[in-house]
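User: Predict structure, ligand histidyl-adenosine monophosphate.
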Amino acid sequence: MSTFQAPKGTYDLIPPDSATYLAVREAIAAPLRNSGYGYIETPGFENVELFARGVGESTDIVTKEMYAFETKGGDKLALRPEGTASVLRAALEANLHKTGNLPVKLWYSGSYYRYERPQKGRYRHFSQVGAEAIGAEDPALDAELIILADQAYRSLGLRNFRILLNSLGDKECRPVYRAALQDFLRGLDIDEDTRRRAEINPLRVLDDKRESVQKQLTGAPLLRDYLCDACKTYHEEVRELITAAGVAFEDDPKLVRGLDYYTRTTFEFVHDGLGSQSAVGGGGRYDGLSEMIGGPALPSVGWALGVDRTVLALEAEGVELDIPASTSVYAVPLGEEARRVLFAKITELRKVGIAADFAYGGKGLKGAMKSANRSGARYALVAGERDLAEGVVQLKDMRSGEQTAIGVNEIVAELESRLG
Ligand code: HAM
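Assistant: Predicted complex:
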């Protein structure tokens, strides 16, 4: 192992690519900020119990993928594998649900950790931007979240994604379906592991990617046919609201999610250019999660979009985000006097909000101009002894190559007017 190698399943975000990641996070957050969601940040780790109870004891996430550890003080913690349980825990701890202002709408952005087999699009450390609307049962809230995710992807220029939609029923109808599905699965020729899964968490078997299993699942009972009237009406209304908003979706009666807390509305955003790790985001309603972690009944809904996979989706579609150069003005001092004068000037420029940088390290003209070019700056400020003796600096338009002498005292005003 090389000393400089990031741990397996992880990678670093470095310029210039890192700018795309920031822009993606921004683009996902913008519609949320615009719709009444407030920013929340929770710790990178929680008591392991929270995820065991929240995400589900029998899920892959909890049984195989969690970075769980015991601290020197004996606390049993886990790096967060997802955000929903943490955000709900934090909302309950701060009593946000008691302010009489439900739903509590929160958004977050951060790192998550799953000990998965790494491959393209699947990492052990990855980033999500997510949203949770806590404490209201209203189909318009489910619709809002789906519409906002669609808007986020579209604002990035993505087109080849699809929205898969399903309802997982509630505590009335799901148990009846679960029993029917179990009956069906018991009659199949499946391996020991799958048989065990069928007993603990039969809905997960529907999600088995193996063709041999999928073949046998034709004719399996579908939850759609078991939904109680309340769930049916609720789901129909979600569908109508999304349709009315002009957001296209596909009904996917076999969509089950990898986390146990879902009820009713569930959805996934898939991108067709990503191969096997095609889910760029997912979410749904989790009306029972609060009670599962020891809180009051708080019907809620949310989603999380994967930043890493969204970036891969942009690459797959050949979308280049229009990321403006971070530096507008680059100062090139030639000599000691110029160093002092130009350094003061870039400090002034920065104060008025103009992005400016400086040729550090005593570079010669050629090297410094190369750096100016690389910075993407629109203008270079070049000054030597002779310029300063005349009280001027050379302002070079890096696009046209045109160069004009301007008075040292006019630099800030001139650049402010040129850069608009
Ligand atoms: P999730 O489907 O497990 O849902 O993850 C959401 C998204 O995070 C995925 O669609 C994917 O883009 C990204 N993701 C997950 N695992 C990895 C990985 N190993 N490498 C790269 N990207 C990954 C949740 O986490 C739920 N908390 C979503 C939610 C919020 N449901 C309700 N509210």
